[in-house]
## 1
Amino acid sequence: MIGTSDGFSLHSGWFDRGAQHALAQEILERVARSPLYQPTMPRTGKPLSVKMTNLGPLGWMTDKQGGYRYQSRHPVTDEPWPDIPETLIALWDAVSGWPDPPQACLVNWYGPDARMGLHVDADEDAKSAPVVSVSLGDAARFRLGGPTRKGPTRSMRLNSGDVVVLGGESRRFHHGVDRIYAGSSTLLPPDWRPGRINLTLRRVRQSF
Ligand code: SIN
Ligand code: FE2
């Protein structure tokens, strides 16, 4: 585990190959019911390069009309999001140090050319609860900055099975994904290769 005084930690290889496989199956079974959709930027309507869906009582959304927000239903099917698998609740309990369970699990799908620009996760009321993220499939170069957009950044490779915790001060740090190492993993089924799944667990509301 690489931990730093600012509350950031990288747990390399938290999930072994068997656990990654089982988790990927649980995720893909839910994605089949709650399909990936194309998020778009507020105002401009420009598509993000990642595709998304969610698990849990609340899901993070963005589109031209509504902007960044949480909502309880899938924007296309209008169904409630599927449940968060127990494995991820157990992960949250093990690494978050937060007493309340996560309310949202954003599922990000990165094709070989997808990336995510530097941003801060800022749409949650529970701003002190950590963000816990899991990588499955192809590796990525993750970039972590600081509280300001212009400050220094560091980059690290996230492999399948790695877990990142943005806690403490780092909860408000800029972060993003520079690139995907297409073809670096054979974990996901052929239809999902090359590509990467990132799961982000978040507490959204302060209390129920
Ligand atoms: C995110 O910040 O939402 C995603 C991070 C990642 O894909 O590792
Ligand atoms: Fe983020």
## 2
Amino acid sequence: MKMVIAVVQDKDSALLSQTLVKQGFRATKLASTGGFLRAGNTTFLIGTDNEKVPDVIDIIQKSCKSRKQMVTPVSPLGSTVDSFMPYPMEVQVGGAAVFVLDVQDFHSF
Ligand code: 2BA
């Protein structure tokens, strides 16, 4: 068994969870926050059989879009107004950051 962990943008989470359920996959959604943008995103935990992992990744890929976002970097700790000029910059976010982990045991009581 594998655990697929997918960090996706909030805008894509409804379509992704609907598609997963429709195709018979079980998933848990967690509200999360990106370390870089410090904006809300959604983390999916999807436990599934090894041979179904490619199907899950395909669903994630088709449900999650890549978007450009403008960010103004937060002042680093300890810097002064004189030494830090925050210029807005554009970053590409998503479609999704996906991790596939081995599951040693699974129990559902
Ligand atoms: P954030 O950490 O808020 O990152 C949002 C986007 O900002 C990233 O998109 C990337 O394009 C950019 N970015 C992140 N760190 C950067 C840096 N040090 N310098 C320049 N640009 C940077 P994605 O790569 O699509 O990531 C989207 C979200 O997925 C991330 O939100 C984070 O919550 C999660 N994520 C991505 N890679 C991860 C990893 N290796 N471990 C844990 N979470 C990860």
